[in-house]
């Protein structure tokens, strides 16, 4: 299934349980010609916004751009290939709307890791351990690519400075410090999801970002 078809199908299903859904897609400097895909989406989903820019700035930057454009009371974000089931997305929404949490973060269980390459699994578990040990986080599964928040709580993302993968960790760290009500929501990968290879350059960059957060945490406690 082409990604634009998956997007429109997913939004149409979610709209059955919501008064209105605003779809925002951020094209983070992709070199591919996505113009026809964007036309298809806008024709199918009337309340949709496409944000594009030429230079790749990183996932964290792209998420902040999308959040800044959002006008609703609740915001949910995920990757463009929609790696999680619709039921997982709906549970995130319900946690915000019905259970009145400020932030709902997807949580990976052991079943999730069965479909994840061993190297990525190791990196994820090491990061979770360090997040508790060095940052004192209560919500350590920060890197799951499905999260939701109220418009007010989205300010912790808007204030972020990390442009790449640890932007989530930065946001959850700030959210806990500000006392936002956070819940972890078990999520499920859809069938057929494929993971990209983590490059060494990315690991080095994110290690530096983690060190910066750790230094900030130490300063905050002085």
Task: Characterize the structure shown.
The protein has nine helices and six strands, in the order H-E-H-E-H-E-H-E-H-H-E-H-H-E-H. The chain is α/β, with parallel strands linked by helices and 222 residues long. The termini are far apart. The chain has helices spanning 3-14, 35-44, 59-69, 86-97, 110-113, 118-135, 155-158, 167-177, 200-220; strands spanning 23-28, 48-53, 74-78, 103-107, 146-150, 182-186. The chain has a single domain (3-220), classed as Spore Coat Polysaccharide Biosynthesis Protein SpsA, Chain A. Strands 3-5-4-6 form a four-stranded mixed β-sheet, with helices on one face. A two-stranded parallel sheet has the order 1-2. It is globular and about 50 Å long.
Poorly predicted spans:
none
Please state the CA-atom Rg, rounded to the nearest Å.
17 Å
**What is the number of independent domains?**
1
- So, the CATH homologous superfamily? Spore Coat Polysaccharide Biosynthesis Protein SpsA, Chain A
* DSSP E strands, number: 6
How would you summarize this macromolecular structure in one to three sentences?
With 222 residues, the protein is of the alpha/beta class. The chain has helices spanning 3-14, 35-44, 59-69, 86-97, 110-113, 118-135, 155-158, 167-177, 200-220; strands at residues 23-28, 48-53, 74-78, 103-107, 146-150, 182-186. It is globular, with a radius of gyration of 17 Å.
